[in-house]
Amino acid sequence: MSVTEDVRAEETPAAGPVRRRRAPRVTDDNGKRIRVWELVLRYVLLLAVLAITIGPFLWQLSTSLKGTHEDIFSSPPKFLPGSPTLHNYERVANTIPVWDYAFNSLKVATANVVTNCVGSALAGYALARLRYRGRRTATLVFILAMLVPVESIVIAQFTTMRELGLNNTLIGVVLPACIAAMNVLLMRNAFLNLPYEIEEAAFVDGANAWQRFLRIALPSVKGTLAVVAIFAFMGAWDDFLWPLIVLSDPAKFTLTIGLNYLHGTFANDERLVAAGTIIAVAPLIILFACLQRYFFRGVGEGAVKG
Amino acid sequence: MTSPLPSVKTPATSPATPSAKPPGARPVSRVRRQLPTSPWLFAAPGLLVVGIFILYPFVSTLVNAFTDRRTLIPGTFVGLDNFRELLHDDMFWTGLRNSVLYMVGVVPALVLLPLLLALLVQKNIPGITFFRSAFYTPVVASIVVVGLIWVWLLDERGLVNAVLEAVGIGRVGFLSDQWLLLLSAMAVTVWKGLGYYMIIYLAALANVPRELHEAAAVDGAGAVRRFFTVTVPAVRSTMVLVAALSSVAAFKVFSEVYLMAGPNGGPAGEDTTLVMLVQRTGTGLTGRVGYASAISVVVFVITVALMLLVLRADRKEDA
């Protein structure tokens, strides 16, 4: 996707045609100078949108740092805490086992990353490279599975989980999406885009399917694998509807379900809820800050897939 | 969309079977002798998961919709009873109305606003990567976090109302009025989706030939005119894609309304959406699995119909 190229191009501004953007004057894509008033207008609009998108997170952070004696309802509002304190984070840990919930979320997300990477790489390779009867049928199965809206089958997923005796367990939370059809098809496309000749040479040299997969194909699709990993982590960490349905024992809650419980029970304690939400969102924002490129790339690949 | 046929790249000299051992090949490693290399072994984990947790529940939903199954009671075949009951269930109609309204409210905003945003961040002016990333941040946050942040912002005593009061408009009960709440939830959905669709549009805009803009500018077309005569036609298929993705997602709305209106969708359930109704009816020890499945079937049929409708609209305009 060109998004990736775009992002990459900016990381190495010295490369090729991008160089002229480095010129002392601000120029547009044609090398023409952007007029000053237009530039000012752009930055004003950018800052306005920035306030709308990031502002709410900062307000939540600010609320979570305000002490019990500080008025959080004042009008005009006070944007910065008078005497910042971590007291609310202590309180939220005393109210619900928030660190246990965070650990549950981490377990679920990590398991989801491992199973999706391994499972979709294997299946994707089988769909793209191996020859056998029924391969088209297998591909069709994954395409159909991708098109089924999860919301329309959650009740049946829940009864299936009950039949397996896995409701109210973290394994039950992970299983339904542990090898997502869309990831299988993403990996399949990545393998299809590799030149066939290298693997053919390996085959002639006597490498079997496992060796070709592990030593030649897999190292060449690391980028797509990273996208699968990141979206599997984010999907599991952020998921709400399914864990809400499958988990009933508060000891096994994940963070999102725990937050919902906190909100339902202590809705009037805004500082407490604010501290809880910051705990839930901080890891992902850090992850995003470190691995932006793959987040953007994933949007492109996912959207094309539908 | 995916091309369903995989065999395009296969050269004529393709190996017959992967497990066949070429004669005279040098021994490569132990792995080769120990691991079986049946292709089905590669595909098996994925097929099993998808089969047990997606396709089987899907078939089971279709079957259950014609039974009176409950969580703890297997149930019997009741024909079309569930669907007949739906027709007379006020809550079902409320849910359908809210889900449709949600879609009608959210989709135009999500087709248009991210496009404008993409145009705003398209030019490589200093610091633009920071802005692009910042605008994407709501996408990575959990919908629960986002929902709770906005519940607090839109609270009777929250930030938005404090500002409204300070500028003399007075406080507004965003979360207490049935319609304002639905509207607020839509705004939250749009807020969270902006960055995602912005990235999709950015990719599309990068493919718009510069010459078109230049030619239009030479002909004296202003920025607004160029937007409608050059940009919009050039990214039209992307707009259709965004419309398809966002309408399907908006119709299935659950979390935003659940968090802002509460599990019951307001005091009398007046803000219930269809998926909320599915969740409320079908779960728990007394869940009416059969009836919830019937609602699920309706959700599925409408979702598929929406996708086909949008894609068909695309093709018609092309012709």
Q: Output the CATH topology of the largest domain in chain A.
A: MetI-like fold
The tally of strands of chain A reads: 0
* Shape descriptor of chain B: globular
What's the CATH class label of the largest domain in chain A? Mainly Alpha
DSSP helix count of chain A? 15
Assign the CATH architecture of the largest domain in chain A: Orthogonal Bundle
Rg result of chain A: 24 Å
Overall radius of gyration of chain B: 26 Å
Family (chain A): Belongs to the binding-protein-dependent transport system permease family.
Keywords (chain A): Cell membrane, Membrane, Transmembrane, Transmembrane helix, Transport
Biased composition (Basic and acidic residues) (chain A): 1-11
Main location (chain A): membrane
Main attributes of the structure:
heterodimer; A: mainly alpha; MetI-like fold; 15 helices; globular; disordered N terminus; B: 319 residues; 0% strand
Provide structural commentary.
Chain A: Belongs to the binding-protein-dependent transport system permease family. Chain A: This is Carbohydrate ABC transporter permease. Chain A: Residues 1-11 have a biased composition (Basic and acidic residues). The complex is a heterodimer of chains A (306) and B (319). Chain A has 15 helices and no strands. With 306 residues, chain A is mainly alpha-helical. In chain A, α11 (222-238) crosses α15 (292-305) and α13 packs antiparallel against α14. The two termini of chain A are 14 Å apart. The model of chain A is unreliable at 1-24 (pLDDT under 50). Chain B has a single domain (83-318), classed as MetI-like fold, CATH 1.10.3720. The relative contact order of chain B is 0.13. Chain B is built from 14 helices and no strands. The longest helix of chain B has 33 residues, at 90-122. With 319 residues, chain B is an all-alpha fold. Classes of the chains: A mainly alpha (306), B mainly alpha (319). At the A-B interface, α1, α2, α4, α5 and α6 of A face α2, α4, α5, α6 and α7 of B.
